[in-house]
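Quick one: structure for this chain?
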Amino acid sequence: MTICAVRVELGPIVRWVARQRERVTITDRGRPTAVLIGMPELAELDQAAAGRGHQVSCPTCSPGARDV
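Got it. Here's what it folds into:
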């Protein structure tokens, strides 16, 4: 999904990701640049990373985190 498409449809995309537990890859000029995932999936990824000794990346847990 392009950045422009995400900009236009952000609300519905976020709700769909949260409901369906699906990932949305965001592209910039045809190149994947980011992935939108739901909070439950992020929590699972963070738990797995913490189990391997990596720093937790949850935006609500990270110092300096900000809502967008």
